[in-house]
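User: Can you recover a sequence for this backbone? Please restate the input before giving your answer.

Assistant: Of course. Working from this structure:
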């Protein structure tokens, strides 16, 4: 009698990424818990056991079996930084950038984030749900089973709430788990360009309390960068976030250092993201904190930059490093974490094992998930991505394509 409650998947390699929900640092960043020619048993939506084919077969003799020889099984990927709810793509701007116009210059001309703001304000919640649904399914087809999604293209109370309600609807209707972040401090909207303090009042006094009241976000983020939000403005937003029960995270030191990493560590932020221009004190601050350093090298590649965040230095100093897509219509229109891993290995000096930990266990730590997601340890949710290659190093090595062959979400095959 087959035991239909238990599924055994056999594979050439299984990456268990051991270590629970704690952020991985230094040597543990390359500990992927590799099981060669093994099997995983899944029951009631959770990982029941991982081990040799024979051992697992003997323990669950009546289980349904699936032979995925020639494949690698990994924890479902965790994309801890996305802007996946938006309207149209920004193709004119892309072409301008190809011709050499810098991103911040395009933003000053009214493009960039504010182009997406104008577009999103005109769209209904239902329309944004439809657009988001298709994009999240693409994300899952690439192996991502949990994603953070930020607001920040509304920049009015009504439109920010609209974006977060879209995330809530998609989280309820789609298989992928979504973690919502309020990012009202993503830019200054055009109507407030000369009245920055008034916009900040709106974020602090009206938006954050409204988001908290409706339970629409777990995190609060700020785009702290010279020309966007100053350290003082950022501090004000994060203090209001903490008062209202939202956990800080930060866009920090992307193009120029302005003490973003240090401020994130001071606020015990869940993560400090980008860090292309992080300073030495910033590296030390993250290494001495539980704030995860989330690197988004796809953004720098797509923007044509010739520098990358100092991943090697961060890891060697003891910071926990995660990798994410930054999926958005301006600076990083990819849903593919596998290609982000390739960039991390080729340009940031990370080894494939570290890149896998950075998109699984440390992605989960950057979202403080705390339930074993990002690992395939017994008791963790059975979020599994199968890649159609026999060695995990082939995932970043054979770069640019999608190796994800199948996905299980809480034990249910969804791709
Ligand atoms: Zn971002």
């Amino acid at each position: 009698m087959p035991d239909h409650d238990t599924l055994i998947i056999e594979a050439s390699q299984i990456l268990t990424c051991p270590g629970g929900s704690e952020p991985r640092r230094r040597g543990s960043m390359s500990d992927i818990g590799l099981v060669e020619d093994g099997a995983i048993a899944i029951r009631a939506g959770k990982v029941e056991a991982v081990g040799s084919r024979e051992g697992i077969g003997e323990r669950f003799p009546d289980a349904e079996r699936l032979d995925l020889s020639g494949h690698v099984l990994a924890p479902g990927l965790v994309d801890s930084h996305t802007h996946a709810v938006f309207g149209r793509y920004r193709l004119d701007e892309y072409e301008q950038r190809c011709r050499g116009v810098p991103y911040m210059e395009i933003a000053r001309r009214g493009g960039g984030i504010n182009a997406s703001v104008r577009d999103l304000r005109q769209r209904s919640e239902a329309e944004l749900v439809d657009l988001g649904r298709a994009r999240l399914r693409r994300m899952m087809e690439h192996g991502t089973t949990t994603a953070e999604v930020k607001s920040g293209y509304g920049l009015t109370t009504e439109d920010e709430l609209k974006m977060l309600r879209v995330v809530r609807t998609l989280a309820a209707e789609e298989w992928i788990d979504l973690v919502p972040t309020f990012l009202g401090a993503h830019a200054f909207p055009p109507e407030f360009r000369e009245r920055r303090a008034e916009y900040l009042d709106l974020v602090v006094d009206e938006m954050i309390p409204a988001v908290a009241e409706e339970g629409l976000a777990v995190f609060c983020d700020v785009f702290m960068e010279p020309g966007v939000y100053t350290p003082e403005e950022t501090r004000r937003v994060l203090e209001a976030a903490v008062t209202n029960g939202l956990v800080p995270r930060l866009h920090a030191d992307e193009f120029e250092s302005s003490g973003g990493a240090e401020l994130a560590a001071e606020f015990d932020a869940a993560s400090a993201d980008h860090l292309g221009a992080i300073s030495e004190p910033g590296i030390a601050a993250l290494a001495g904190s539980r704030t995860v350093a989330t690197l988004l090298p796809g953004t720098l590649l797509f923007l044509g930059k010739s520098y990358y965040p100092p991943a090697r230095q961060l890891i060697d100093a003891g910071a926990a490093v995660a990798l994410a897509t930054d999926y958005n219509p301006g600076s990083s229109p990819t849903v593919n974490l596998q290609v982000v891993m390739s960039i991390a290995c080729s340009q940031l000096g990370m080894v494939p094992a570290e890149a896998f930990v950075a998109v699984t266990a440390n992605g989960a730590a950057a979202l403080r998930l705390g339930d074993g997601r990002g690992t395939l340890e017994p008791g963790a949710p059975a979020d599994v991505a199968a890649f159609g290659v026999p060695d995990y190093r082939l995932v970043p090595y054979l770069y640019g394509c999608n190796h994800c062959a199948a996905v299980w979400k809480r034990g249910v095959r969804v791709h």
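That completes the design. Residues 81, 83, 251, 326 surround zinc ion (CB under 6 Å).
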